[in-house]
Amino acid sequence: MDIKDRIHQQVTGHRVALYMKGTPRFPQCGFSATAVQILKHCGVTDFFSANVLEDADLRQGVKEYANWPTIPQLYINGEFVGGCDIMKEMYHSGELKKLLEAAVPAG
Amino acid sequence: MNVADAMRERLASLAPLAVDIIDDSARHAGHAGARSGGGHYHLRIVSERFAGRAPLARHRLVHEALGEMMHHEIHALSIQALTPEEA
To answer: What was the ipTM of the complex prediction?
Structure first.
């Protein structure tokens, strides 16, 4: 499968998808660690994540998929939301929590 | 020309009222992602162009202005993009 198709399947097949460096338990970059923490603060602990450091095709592919040059990248219901700074801004404004609550049914 | 000056030159296309660049590279030296050699920067930019645009669109404008630098000299960039009213 083409890398773009694979990414498309991942982001549309999961309500919340995070492309990051490392894993949620062991992030390998401060920005990725922050992204995971923000999701946790929003009450999202069960989300799809992919470690781009383990897959060079994915690392490049996801940058082209979103037309976004950096990692981490957050997707909600298949839609690209942003990187670490935008997650931070949207977390502080309360917008991210609303978006996540709408995407992930409680319980 | 150092990277910060090169960034300023490219960001001039956004007609910024203020551009502050902090080079954070030293803080990240040695971590897994820093091996590629690109630097870590924090950018605070104030421009009228950001008015009426959501954070995602503002960041895209900055990425576009920086162009190829995003793939080479810049490994990681933290962006604060403000309108004059917000600054």
So the answer is: 0.83
